[in-house]
Design brief:
Blueprint (H helix, E strand, L loop, with lengths): L6 H12 L7 H6 L1 E7 L6 E9 L12 E4 L17 H7 L4 E6 L7 H19 L3 E7 L3 H8 L7 E2 L2 E9 L33 H6 L3 H10 L23 E6 L7 H10 L12 E6 L13 H4 L3 H14 L3
Parallel strand pairs: 3-4, 3-5, 5-7, 7-8, 8-9
Antiparallel strand pairs: 1-2, 2-4, 6-7
Helix pairs in contact: 4-5
Length: 324
């Protein structure tokens, strides 16, 4: 009996850990979802967005301004909230950040400009719904293209009407593909699902579970203007160099979908028009062993890796809490 005395407290700890996050049923998600019909300003095209609200899950956490995330597009939205397995959304909820996840009813035929203009309108609406004047904004995977376009509607300080984008962050964001052997040259292989290089973990089962692929994703990859091989210059995104809001760019060391080579030019250009660029509060985090993390991160593990909470999500949380 004494030799087993450790089991009861140990099991209690495991039970508490298992209760940190909870699964959310589809009816609950439906109840928390708003529909936001928008007309894109430049094209006049109607864009139907939806926004799902995820409230705090730790009653003792100090409440922070909401985080607004845009759909990663490349991955299904389920990768952001994997029930009891965790994910970026439940991690933020547990840490004191309510979350709005914004996504479009369809992406086929949409341009980043249309999606970005719609997202800018949605931000104003969600600020009203949340009765807040400030939000954090997150761009994930291919959805980062829309986030950058939404920021074109904002002032350099991040103000969109009555709402202030307090900080902006990007995780696994392919922002510039003007480098040799670009991912675009190999994207055709994704038409029938993720490639072996992307999904070689667990026999590809987990990656297949969250890949949104198929022909729609392939057409999206081929039509997004910000995924071309031209430089990220004033002709493509004139406001990027003028931004002054704090920004965090997270790139996976071995990410083959949004390589660090595609992230660094955007990071370098961010705020570069300021007289003293060193004063711009921007940061680039390469997720890998070189930064004392558990592994070199790829496009999948950046969102659902075994140690992603401690390696990636926790530095993000600390950065969000840093005073401006």
């Amino acid at each position: 009996m004494p030799s087993n005395s450790w089991r009861l407290p140990c099991l209690a700890v495991l039970a508490l850990a298992g209760c940190r996050y909870e699964a959310i049923a589809a009816p609950q998600l439906a109840e928390r979802t708003l529909q936001i019909p928008v007309v894109a300003a430049t094209t006049g095209a109607p864009v139907s967005l939806r926004a799902t609200y995820y409230p705090l899950t730790h009653r003792n956490a100090r409440r922070q301004p909401p985080v607004v995330l845009f759909d990663p597009v490349f991955w299904s939205r389920g990768i952001l909230h994997r029930g009891r397995e965790g994910g970026l959304i439940p991690f933020l909820n547990y840490s004191g950040f309510p979350v709005w996840l914004v996504y479009a009813d369809q992406y086929e035929g949409r341009t980043p400009r249309e999606l970005g203009e719609a997202l800018a309108t949605a931000l104003r609406e969600l600020a009203k719904a949340s009765d807040v004047g400030q939000v954090f904004l997150g761009g994930l995977s291919l959805g980062s293209q829309a986030v950058l376009e939404a920021l074109r509607q904002a002032s350099p300080e991040g103000r969109l009407g009555r709402v202030l984008v307090r900080k902006v962050f990007f995780i696994g964001a392919g922002l510039d593909y003007a480098f040799p052997d670009s991912f675009l040259a190999h994207s055709q292989s994704l038409a029938n699902g993720p490639s072996k290089a992307l999904c070689d973990r667990d026999g590809g089962r987990a990656c297949q579970r969250y890949f949104s692929g198929g022909q729609a994703a392939q057409r999206l990859l081929g039509t997004l203007p910000l995924l071309d091989t031209g430089p990220l210059d004033d002709a493509r995104l004139p406001s990027l160099a003028s931004f002054r809001m704090p920004a965090l760019f997270v790139a996976g060391k071995i990410d083959g979908i949004a390589p660090s080579e595609s992230v660094f030019p955007a990071y370098q250009r961010y705020g570069s028009r300021e007289p003293d660029e060193r004063q711009i509060p921007k940061r680039l985090l390469i997720a890998g062993l070189e930064n004392r993390m558990h592994e070199d991160y790829d496009h999948y593990t950046l969102f659902a890796g075994k140690h992603v909470e401690g390696d990636v999500f926790e530095p993000l949380r600390q950065w969000l809490l840093e005073p401006m």
